[in-house]
Amino acid sequence: MERLQKIIAERGFCSRRKAEEYILQGLVWVNGKKVKELGTKVSEKDEIIINHTLLEGKEKKEYYLFYKPSKVISSVKDEKQRKTVVDFIPTKKRIYPIGRLDYDTTGLLLLTNDGELSHYLTHPKNNIEKVYVAKINGILTPQEIQTLKKGIEVEKRMIFPTKIKQKITSSSHAMVTIGITEGRNHIVKKIFAQMGYRVLTLKRESYAFLTLDGLKVGEYRPLTFKEVKKLYAQKNCFK
């Protein structure tokens, strides 16, 4: 017997967090009975229906590393009919992105149908490092760099970058490499906005130990078994 939300995630229907939302909203039925308790346990033999869709049995897990271009939506589908990240990967499995990159942000994005891994990597307590390169409309002073290194408060929560490195590219612009374990929406842009700077371009260069090496914009590759295993072992790496 396993928790209902875990079974839903393992079968690739959605992430565990999303499964919990479905349960609380009363959209999940087990053997003909509505379930609204997150602690409910079920077996592999139980019939599970989510929002009128019968949950299929276990499926083979797929994992992809994608070099996201700008002006692409980090979603499975878009109501405005814009191109999404899943459009680039030819698979019959229902894959979805782990976390998100903004519409105009480029770089490394992971996609999978493994809801358990998605939940694991996006849960705040696991402190997965993401490294970005931001072009800003200014140049950080030495004092501002020290402020970032010591931690900065954004929306009433402290953020402690894992790394900060600046490369001055002109008299009025700089490229700043910043590592964070945060996962909030637009968080890198919000960090620099808090300091009075605007992010002109943004690229995610790495996710945990994974990088974009060997890929061009718009290209992808499957993750290896060793890489997936190593991702599961990333817990609390930067505590």
Topology of helices and strands:
Elements: E1 2-3, H1 4-10, H2 16-24, E2 28-30, E3 33-35, E4 41-42, E5 48-50, E6 53-54, E7 63-68, E8 96-97, E9 106-112, H3 115-122, E10 130-136, H4 142-150, E11 152-154, E12 157-159, E13 163-168, E14 174-180, H5 187-194, E15 199-207, E16 210-211, E17 220-222, H6 225-232
Helix pairs in contact: 1-2
Number of domains: 3
CATH topology of the largest domain: Alpha-Beta Plaits
What is the percentage of strand-forming residues?
25-35%
Assign an overall shape.
Answer: elongated
Q: Tell me roughly what share of residues is in helical segments.
A: 10-25%
Structural class: alpha+beta
Order of helices and strands: EHHEEEEEEEEHEHEEEEHEEEH
* pLDDT < 50 runs, ≥5 residues: none
Please tally the helical runs, counting DSSP H or I stretches of 4 or more residues.
Answer: 6
Task: Report, as a whole number of angstroms, the end-to-end distance.
Answer: 33 Å
Mean residue pLDDT: 92
Broad CATH class of the largest domain: Alpha Beta
Tally of strands:
17
Q: Any idea what the CATH architecture of the largest domain is? A: 2-Layer Sandwich
Radius of gyration: 20 Å
The CATH H-level homologous superfamily of the largest domain: Pseudouridine synthase I, catalytic domain, N-terminal subdomain
| Major β-sheet annotation | 9 strands, mixed
